[in-house]
Amino acid sequence: MRLLEEIVSLLSDKDGSLTDALLKTKVLMHRIGHKELAGWVNDELNGYTADRSVPDYRIIPIRLHGDISNIAWRYPGTQLPTGHLKKDVREKFRREKLRQSVQVLEQLSKGTDSLMRPVEPEFYAFLAKGGIDPSFHIDRAWVQFEPTQIVNVLIEVRSRLLDFALTLQGELGDVADDKMKEAAKGIDAPGMFTSAVFGDNATFVFGNNNETTITNSVTKGDFTALAKAFKDSGVSEVDVDELKAAVDDDDPQLVSETKKFGPKVKAWMNKMTGKAIDGAWAIGIGAGGNLLADALGSYYGIK
């Protein structure tokens, strides 16, 4: 289990490369037969494209600054007000979505000076009107945040991935790398990953690069919400009915105690994964695997 030990070592060392740990995790996903779980890992490695939803931990508060002047006075680097703006516009200047790759974020976090993103000049008059004295105008504007905020984002990624690696390590035990796939068949790796990385009973957006994006919101014991999540992602009525039968057949008490899906639900998940691979379920493989693990994990409240 050298690969998993290397990942744990990198993640538990504050100076260990998070990029290296993510790359090794991508290899690990293939080794244990769950490459469909690599969607989040790919997003963290490559960065989140404009059509991808950014996780909450990558959204940080920012401050709007600018150089303002009138015929007599000039105030450089002044923090500008945003309270006069409409809510949707105000958020653009109060929250920053960090879409960069982990490697880029690691480099940005090492700086000591504040980080800035320029604001387009076409916004200047709009920001000034109702926000500053009419005699002043904005010469230049930017949003500003600190490297320490990026450090916190990287800690979140490191901590979540470490939780998964440690849990998986505890379940697999001392097994050779070439035996990991066989050993992983008896554990709920998708449930572990979902719980560690995304948490329980929360709303997430899944997808991978140009694959279908899915929003899933399911709470424990709510099969109506579970059925809707799958139907909204293209799962047929027949397949949802089969899932209901599988859920009814499996012992919920046993699932709660073992934190593992029952045999009937596992069989249904394997069937749906096969449909995603074959294209019969019109959804990307990574997105489908994440949805299955998250939705069912939230339904059962598996941690």
Distance between the termini: 24 Å
Biggest beta sheet attributes: 4 strands, antiparallel
- Kindly estimate the percentage of residues that lie in beta strands according to DSSP: 5-15%
Which stretches of 5+ consecutive residues score pLDDT under 50? 201-216
Give the helix/strand class. Answer: alpha+beta
Quantity of strands, as a count: 8
| Main sheet strand line-up | 3-2-6-5
Q: Whole-number average pLDDT?
A: 85
What does this structure look like?
Helices cover 51% and strands 13% of the residues. It has 303 residues and is of the alpha+beta class. Helix 2 (18-31) packs antiparallel against helix 3 (39-46) and helix 13 (263-278) runs antiparallel to helix 14. The protein is elongated, with a radius of gyration of 23 Å. Mean pLDDT is 85; it is low at 201-216.
